[in-house]
Amino acid sequence: MELYHNNMSVCAQKVRVVLAEKGLKPTEHHLNLRAGESHTPDYLKLNPKGVVPTLIDNGEPIIESTVISEYLDEVYPEPALRPADPIKRAKMRSKWTMLPDTGLHRACAMVTFAIAFRHQEQSKQLAALGPAERADREERNRLGLDAPGVAGAVRFHITMLDDMAKQLAKTAWLAGDDFSLGDTAVLPYVIRLEHLMQSWMWDDGGKRAAVGDWLKRAKARKGFAGIADYIDPKYIELMTPTGNEARPKVEAIVAGA
Predict the structure, then answer these.
(1) What secondary structure, in 3-state letters, does 142-198 show?
(2) How many domains does the chain fold into?
(3) Which of 37-46, 116-125, 144-153 has the lowest mean pLDDT?
(4) Rounded to whole angstroms, how far apart are CA atoms 141 and 37?
(5) Cβ–Cβ < 8 Å for 30, 237
(6) pTM
(7) Which CATH number do you get for residue 99?
(8) Do the beta carbons of residue 53 and residue 5 sit within 8 Å?
(9) Residue 40 pLDDT > 60
(10) Which domain holds residue 227?
(11) Are residues 6 and 112 in the same domain?
């Protein structure tokens, strides 16, 4: 088994949490995304989209983090990360595991770049984008949280956190009484908010306090090594001051929602 990934990629984090939960240790190939290593001819043969992660198992490349996670739970079923009941499994997929693919990932990228990554030179990464996406990224880098769509991206996260709190008032984990792919799907995105110094969203003891408790318990699991063991201090050094600086404007966006 091989894994092509990036240490701070939320999609790669999601898959590494699943791998760690199952005690699987693939041979790792770390790709520097800012250097364009996910767009080399050799890597594009494995993953034509030029993104991470890519899992190779028994010689077969598997792409898309949601698909990889489900594949791992099907082929390596212990411990199980999906409910045994088909209805509960379907609800988990529609509510949580598909969430990154239906808006959360894009919202996370917009908020991350608006707060932190816009302060870094990204010429090589921008060059790999299509004209429309490149123009959108350049505008977001220039305007930050004032860029079109960013306020909506912040509100997307708030809606997710509110939905999580409502569910966690009823069950220990997002898909029921057991930790599941529903939890692994959103965990990296909550961690990203924490790294961006926005944990006030659930740390105020208010209606989202259950999210903080969930996060504490998730961090105590062995699977969290898939995130914690790969944290790049240089990213944290960037996210901490820019996140603190952005907080008043983010709070204003949330209050306005």
Answers:
(1) HHHHHCCCHHHHHHHHHHHHHHHHHHHCCCCECCECCCCHHHHHHHHHHHHHHHCCC
(2) 2
(3) 116-125
(4) 22
(5) no
(6) 0.93
(7) 1.20.1050.10
(8) yes
(9) yes
(10) 86-256
(11) no
